[in-house]
Amino acid sequence: MQQHPLYPRPPKPQLVVSAGMRPNCEVAVFINGPLALADGIPFFRSANGVILTPGNADGFLLPKYFKEALQLRPTRKPLSLSDNEGTECQSGPRHTSRGRTMIQQ
User: Does the entry feature the keyword ATP-binding, yes or no (predicted)?
Assistant: First the structure.
């Protein structure tokens, strides 16, 4: 399975391609930032404006922080998060690419 970096970005009225988000991105996941921050998940803004997170101690951003998910391609439509409620990620090896933490799916 291919690994992908996690690039949270500031909310905007329309979902547009932003720094760090590839134009061929298939899924966008919106994060409940206040909840994640309250639980101690750190976020950082890079020099080019991309918001990054290393996730929790195991390198994951758990589904409980997912606010909304959209399939962007081939057609834009909301994705259900109901299967993710209460789901815990299994601990596994952290993958890095060019110094970025990769989220294992």
Answer: no
